[in-house]
Structure formats: C-alpha cells, structure tokens
C-alpha cells in the first residue's frame, strides 16, 4: 500500500470560500473524503499550514519514509527558497500541484522555486490535479 501525504500551503484552508471562480466551491476536506474513497489502495494523509516553517518541518518529517508527497505550496511556490531547499533535501518524491493554471495568472506566479526539485508538476485541472498526482505515484514504475 502506497503511503502518500498531501501538503497544502497558505490560504488553501479557505477552499470553498476563497475566490470560488478560481478555486471552486468545495472544501478540501470534502474533496479529501472523495480521494480516500477513490484511492482506497493508498494510505492518504493530509496536512495544511499557512506557516512556511511548518511546511518545511512537515517535509522533513515525512520526506524519508513516505512513498510520495503531493505539495501545493500555494503562494510560497513563488517565493520560498526554504521550501525548495527542503524538497531538494529529502528522498521522497514530490509532485508539485496547483489548482489553477498559474501561467494564466499574474506574472509572478509563472516562477516556481519548487519545480526544479520536483518529480513533476500538475496544474490547472482544479481539484482533479490532486487525482492526477496520486495516480502518478500509483502507476509509476
């Protein structure tokens, strides 16, 4: 059984309320229930924080023992060398995920400090981006 953690960064605790035209109307907790039912062959865990250091601590904690990390660092994607360094330092593969197509948004969102150290990047498919990331771990060789 694959052990995968989803780590979400700042403001993603507001899914369902925040900018629904971009992020939709569903909370992540409700979507997590769907993911857990759909991917019962995986052990899925979830962590969310608005604090950069807590995200780094979580990456350090799980980065040597899990089968996969799905990371939506949100705005920290475009600003955090610390999170980038944490992803580079760990052994567990990381898939960077974004709900929106960051290239269709403001110019500063076109730069990711995480991408160079990630196994892959999935963006622009709404919450289904998380499904695709999980499947990348299930079906990878």
From TrEMBL:
Pathway annotation from the record: Metabolic intermediate biosynthesis; chorismate biosynthesis; chorismate from D-erythrose 4-phosphate and phosphoenolpyruvate: step 3/7
Pfam families cross-referenced by the UniProt entry: DHquinase_II (PF01220)
Top enzyme category: lyase
Role played: Catalyzes a trans-dehydration via an enolate intermediate.
SUBUNIT field: Homododecamer.
Family, as annotated: Belongs to the type-II 3-dehydroquinase family.
UniProt protein name: 3-dehydroquinate dehydratase
Protein species of origin: Winogradskyella aquimaris
